[in-house]
Structure of Helix-turn-helix protein:
Amino acid sequence: MAKKNAHIGSSFDDLFEETADLTEASAVAIKRVVAWQVSQKMENENISKTRMAQLMDTSRSALDRLLDPTNTSVTLHTLDNAAKALGKTLHVELV
């Protein structure tokens, strides 16, 4: 009898869980979306990086970290300040 393939039927998430990379991959995916949303809103509203940093009461380098899609070390405080600067609210949810 043929040996059954253990990988048939598994999901991409299962692979990440097996290699312990699911948490990091999820964090990077979420950060990419947030960075994209902030930069799109800035572009649509014609807000420069310098002006956005002023609105957030932070430095340009802190804003650059927020806009860097691979930097997952952003605090909720920074995200909340960015949302407020753009006239939005931050919504965080455990699912």
About this structure: The mean pLDDT is 87. The chain has one domain: 12-85. The chain has five helices and no strands. The radius of gyration is 18 Å.
